[in-house]
Specification:
The chain is an alpha+beta fold and about 550 residues long. The strands form 8 sheets. It has a 5-stranded mixed β-sheet with strand order 12-11-15-16-17, covered by helices on one side. A hairpin with a 6-residue loop joins β19 and β20. It starts with a helix and ends with a strand.
């Protein structure tokens, strides 16, 4: 068995999932069933269809009708609308001929030539199934892929006379309060509606967009025309429900009321740093605002379900219907280009000043946790159906916060990446660039640049050279935190480890040269010389020969 076959069998052993489908061909799979399966994959995430494999993953081979695979791509293209291009690969697994059909994820909706439109989803037990693709889900898919903007859709059945004029005053107040575009304040109500895209005109008559309805509509209009729109605020203490409020009011009014509900649960302490008193809240208000605004703005309005804000003993959860938009996932949250499921609504909220204008509100959420020495915001409970943000309510690390405040200028304007690096080093003690890169969601060279900048300003120390080069917090940081013993223990580990490596090498090979020490311990020439000199002084080794020909043996 070669490596390719072994890898394929391993993939098949993993069973069917959202992107892997098995189809038996023992009785010659009908073209209709094959095309339907391909369409379902293309309308979801794409993937691989293995023809000639049973549901349990056992290869049973291709029927005689399908042994000639050259015409299969043309068959699929001819029986899909629009035509879908697939790649077919002939395989042999456990002595059985099998076809692997690579199906790309389509940016258009694909149907069979008979008009069948399907997608894949996971059952409760995790197994996949093909289900009809209903019309109301078209908008959901296209918006998640950034192909259309649901918030810009015009609602012709609503006239502007039905909108609530008080909400325009709320928009103007928000612009002043949150530092939005001041030029908007000089506009008339009609001009403001047009400038923000709240209202569009068709056949000479103005009508609100979905974004306009969210900001200017009455509660009755919102219930009637946007039934999916709802916001819940809950506070739990153990199993006791202390607050349980649901809102369907216009978006800005809902934001203000939830923010007022949240405010009493923010408890502040203080930390003295020099002449300043630095507040230490249990929840960072700016991080909460960005997280909540993101949930309101980027939610999927075609999917029923409320935006939930829940406080309990463990922390703050903010969840919103609709998974991450196309191209965004847990591994690139910090670096993915800013994009929204509802671009017009997101633009309005930025121009009002309610959200980060650069589109990097996620950075503010991270900073709001890390600067207090708390864990990073946690998105791991998110699924394809909703995004969940969790911010843990644990005691702040006062020493870490003191360091962040004192070193503010050295950390620069963009705190997030240095904060992540320092927080990880605080917790893990010692890391290489390869170990730290996933946390920063950057390549190793990019991570090394960040670490070397921290090295230059004296916040970290480097140990070794090359790929084995590792980093720890500096003596200054440990000393500022009152952890001198921890630094000595951490920094001293290198020397002890290097000495043991040198002695082990000598025990194995009889002697060692300085070049061997440099390669073994990832040291430069001078560092290797100092290590050998120190070990000679401690009577651990003795030198044989001089200069380039010198070797070292145990005493």
């Amino acid at each position: 068995m070669n490596d390719t076959e072994r890898d394929l069998l391993e993939l098949i052993r993993g069973g069917e999932n959202l992107t892997v489908e098995f189809k038996s061909d023992a009785k010659s799979l009908p073209d209709r069933d094959l095309i339907a399966a391909v369409v379902a994959l293309a309308n979801t995430e794409g993937g691989d269809l293995f023809l000639g494999v049973e549901d349990d993953g056992a290869p049973t081979g291709l029927h005689a009708n399908h042994r000639n695979l050259t015409g299969l791509p043309a068959l699929i293209a001819n029986k899909t609308i629009p035509s879908l291009a697939v790649r077919v690969e002939a395989l042999e697994l456990q002595g059985k001929p099998v076809a692997r059909i690579h199906v790309p994820k389509s940016r258009q909706l694909i149907s069979t030539s008979d008009g069948l439109l399907q997608r894949r989803r996971l059952r409760v037990d995790g197994s996949p199934e093909a289900v009809p693709f209903y019309p109301h889900e078209f908008t959901q898919r296209q918006s998640s892929m950034g192909l259309m903007d649901p918030s810009a859709m015009m609602l012709e059945e609503i006239s502007t006379d039905q909108l609530d004029p008080l909400q325009r005053l709320r928009i103007r107040n928000a612009i002043e309060k949150y530092g939005g575009e001041q030029s908007l304040l000089a506009l008339s109500d009609e001009e403001l509606d047009g400038a923000l895209g709240l209202v569009k005109t068709i056949n000479g008559k103005p009508h609100p967009t979905v974004a306009g309805l969210l900001l200017l509509g009455s509660e009755a209009l919102l219930r009637q025309h946007l039934p999916a729109y709802e916001v819940a605020f809950q506070v739990l203490h153990g199993t006791e429900v202390r607050v349980n409020e649901f809102y369907r009011k216009p978006l800005l009014e809902t934001f203000e009321q939830v923010e007022l509900q949240f405010k009493p649960w923010v408890i502040e302490e203080e930390l003295e740093v020099g002449l300043f008193r630095v507040p230490i809240p249990n929840y960072d208000r700016r991080a909460f605002r960005e997280g909540f605004v993101n949930a309101l703005v980027h939610r999927d309005f075609s999917r029923l379900g409320a935006v939930h804000v829940k406080l309990d003993d463990s922390g703050l959860n903010i969840s919103s219907p609709g998974g991450f938009i196309e191209g965004v996932n847990l591994n690139n949250l910090l670096v993915a280009p800013p994009q929204s499921r509802n671009p017009l609504l997101a633009d309005i909220i930025k121009r009002i000043g309610l959200a980060e204008r650069t589109g990097r509100g996620i950075d503010r959420i991270y900073e709001g946790m890390l600067r207090y020495g708390r864990p990073e915001p946690d998105y791991t409970l998110s699924t394809a159906y909703f995004v969940n943000l969790f911010m843990a309510n644990i005691a702040a690390d006062r020493d870490f916060l003191r360091m962040v405040v004192e070193q503010h200028d050295k950390l620069g304007n963009s705190h997030v990446e240095p904060l992540i690096a320092l927080a990880r080093l605080k917790d893990e003690r010692r890391l290489t660039t390869g170990e730290l890169a996933p946390a920063l969601q950057k390549s190793e060279p990019q991570t090394r640049v960040i670490l070397e900048r921290l090295l230059e300003v004296g916040l970290v120390e480097a140990h070794g050279t090359g790929r084995g080069r590792s980093y720890t917090l500096s003596a200054k940081v440990y000393q500022g935190a009152g952890q001198k013993v921890a630094y000595v223990r951490q920094a001293g580990f290198d020397a002890i480890q290097q000495e043991q490596m040198v002695l082990s090498f000598i025990d194995t090979h009889g002697s060692i040269k300085r070049a061997d020490v440099m390669e073994l311990c990832h040291l430069d020439r001078n560092q290797a010389y100092r290590l050998l000199t120190r070990m000679k002084g401690a009577k651990q080794i003795k030198q044989i020969g001089e200069q380039k020909g010198a070797t070292y043996e145990r005493v």
